[in-house]
Every structure is written in C-alpha cells, then in structure tokens.
Amino acid sequence: MQQTRRRIVVGGDHAGFPLKGPIVARLREWGHDVTDVGTHSDEPVDFPDIADQVCQQVRAGEADRGIMVCGTGVGASIAANKYPGIRAALCHDSYSAHQAVEHDDVNVLCLGAQIVGDRLAFELLTAFLGAEHSDEPHFRRRVAKLADLERRFAGSDD
Predict the structure, then answer these.
(1) By three-state DSSP, how is residue 73 classified?
(2) What is the pTM of this model?
(3) Is 33 helix (H, G, I), strand (E, B) or coil?
C-alpha cells in the first residue's frame, strides 16, 4: 500500500477492542507511526475517556489523524466531535471515508467493531489515510464555517 506516512493515534473502548488490535498491526505494517492509547483489554472502559486521549493528541499536533473504535462507532463519533478542531466521521463505506477528508477535512475516523470486520476496516483506513483535503474554495469555506460554529457555541449552554 502506497500512502503518505502519517502519525496516527488509535483508541477504542472494550467493544472496539477486538478490531483495534488488527487495525494497529495493519497501520504499522503499512509504515505509519502509530500510538495506541488503549484500551488494552476487553474490560469495560468508557469511550469518552479514550476519545479524550485520541483527540488531545490530534489537537496538539502529536498525531496527524486519529482512529476511534467502539461497538458501533456512534459513541466515539459523538465524543470526538465535542473537541474544538476535531472533525470526526463515522464511516462504513470507502467513499464516505475518502470524501469526509477531501470535502470536510475530517481528522478522526470512527469505526464500529460490531458493524465492520477487519477486511472492510482496512479498506476504510486506506480511503481515509489516502485522502487529502481539497484546496477548492468552497470546501475551505465550509470547513471555516464549521470552525466559526465551534467558536460561537464554545462554552455556551444553548
């Protein structure tokens, strides 16, 4: 697989644990620099705690992109999208995984271990990591509007 070598942070809860291991192994096999923030067992853990570790590394520039794996990917996506500067997408198809980056500058991919198997997960990773955000003005403008929304509602109780 020919891709840009990236620094990737990967995390998942206990429901995502069975898929997280193969993902980490495959990313390393592909030559990426991978940080695995856990969980490292099938003992229950709360996905917001793992999302915090993944998103903080992406926000700090310690990782180029993040991968979150939970049971369905829904909880991981909700948690990750609470962080300013994080644009997380739950993807179950390669087209969305690619377009999410190209059009929306997504920096965290969320996967559901109970929804996708290893083979599809690897296809999604290939699409996500192989994509770059488009320089087209309308895509840049839309991502800037997302950042404006974050600033406008940060700390708001509305």
Answers:
(1) coil
(2) 0.94
(3) strand
Rounded CA-CA distance 66/64 in Å is: 7
Q: Which two tokens stand for residue 48?
A: 């917001």
**Of 55, 70, 91, 110, which residue is the catalytic one?**
70
**Span 89-144, pLDDT tens digits:** 999 999 999 999 999 999 999 999 999 999 999 999 999 999 999 889 889 998 88
Q: Give start and end residues of each alpha helix (H) in 30-154.
A: 47-59, 74-80, 94-104, 118-130, 137-153
> Exposure pattern of 48-78 as b/e (b: 16+ CB <10 Å)?
eebbbebbbbbeeeebbbbbbbbbbbebbbb
To the nearest 10°, the Cα dihedral for 11, 9, 129, 28? -90
CA distance 140 to 104: 8
Given a contact cutoff of 8 angstroms between Cβ atoms, the answer to whether 69 and 43 are in contact is no
Rg (C-alpha) for the chain, rounded Å, is 15
70 is catalytic: yes
110 is catalytic: no
